Amino acid sequence: AAEIADQLTDVLVTEEQIQAKLVELAERVEADYAGKELILVGVLKGAVMVMADFARALKRDITMDWMAVSSYGASTKSSGVVQIRKDLDADLHGKHVLIVEDIIDSGLTLSWLLENFQSRGAESLEVLALLRKPEAAKVEIDCRYVGFDIPNDFVVGYGLDYAEKYRNLRDVAILAPHVYS
Ligand code: PRP
Ligand code: MN
Ligand code: MG
């Protein structure tokens, strides 16, 4: 369990690529939300790293809130059943809301969240996702800010876990099949 390198196959997105992409996305968000108040909503736990780095790439004031949902548990497949573990503190009514996610896989989590947030009366609602797996989509998500489209491998690191591990890796890497099969 100790040798992380033996549990990964390839690095898919490096730390440097992630940081450069977040700066690029931050510039787009700054332009798109000029003169508007913006609240970033991070989806715990996977979005912790992207929220921390994206928020610091922004050269403007924002507020931050967090929602904890989970659909995967200790599995490599989405159950499609989304559980709220922690709700937002903020009232979204009249706010410009940008949901910050680590990955869009099947799309089920965000599809559920978008519907849930729409009913809270936000002034605008958009999504930023560092990663997206087009081949895994079960529902189409309208995501304005996408970092990287990636193949349909099981990836970990930079917030993404398998059974709660590997979130602390600095890169996004492919988990070796022997770890989960
Ligand atoms: C992961 C990931 C996304 C979601 C994407 O979260 O962080 O939130 O799955 O998958 P989907 O598009 O198929 O719904 P998970 O449920 O594993 O919880 P976690 O963030 O705490 O790891
Ligand atoms: Mn998540
Ligand atoms: Mg997870």
TrEMBL record:
GO terms for molecular function: guanine phosphoribosyltransferase activity; hypoxanthine phosphoribosyltransferase activity; magnesium ion binding; nucleotide binding. GO terms for biological process: GMP salvage; guanine salvage; hypoxanthine metabolic process; IMP salvage; purine ribonucleoside salvage. The keyword rRNA-binding does not apply. It catalyses: GMP + diphosphate = guanine + 5-phospho-alpha-D-ribose 1-diphosphate; IMP + diphosphate = hypoxanthine + 5-phospho-alpha-D-ribose 1-diphosphate. InterPro entries: HGPRT (IPR050408), Hxn_phspho_trans (IPR005904), PRTase-like (IPR029057), PRTase_dom (IPR000836). Residues 17-162 form the Phosphoribosyltransferase domain. It comes from the Bacteria. Pathway: Purine metabolism; GMP biosynthesis via salvage pathway; GMP from guanine: step 1/1; Purine metabolism; IMP biosynthesis via salvage pathway; IMP from hypoxanthine: step 1/1. Its EC number is 2.4.2.8. SUPFAM superfamilies: PRTase-like. Belongs to the purine/pyrimidine phosphoribosyltransferase family. This is Hypoxanthine phosphoribosyltransferase. The gene is hpt.
